[in-house]
Structures are given as C-alpha cells and as structure tokens.
Amino acid sequence: MMRQELERIREWAIEQLAAGTERPWSWFQYTKLREAVESILAGIDVAEPMEDSEKASPDRGDSLRLRGAVDLQSH
Predict the structure, then answer these.
(1) How many structural domains does the chain have?
(2) Distance CA 5, CA 13 (A)
(3) What is the value of pTM for the model shown?
C-alpha cells in the first residue's frame, strides 16, 4: 500500500469519528484503524530506504555472509 493511500484511509477514519454518528462499537473500530494507520506511517518514516552511499558494502565488512552450507536433504 502506498503512503498516500494510508493517509487517505486515516483521514477517512478521522472524518467518521468527527461526524459523531457512529455506534460505540463502530467508534472504537475507527479509533483502532486510525491508530494502526498512524503506527504504520510512523514505521514507514523510520524504515525509508537508505541512500546508495549508506547501503551495506562488502568492502566495509558490514554485509551478511554465508558461513557454512547446510544439506537439508540428508536429514
């Protein structure tokens, strides 16, 4: 899902809450939806892709390497 879609969903949930015409159980669900979308958006902000210069480089030794092979068929 794209960020814009999530923001649109959050705004829709906020509009539903602001209308004040929802039943208590619906109001609670809209509140949970708004909170969940806000958490996802916050996570997107933290996990944005790194610049090419910040990515792991084998030359720097900060990439993952396979240490040993495991033969899964022999078990």
Answers:
(1) 1
(2) 12
(3) 0.57
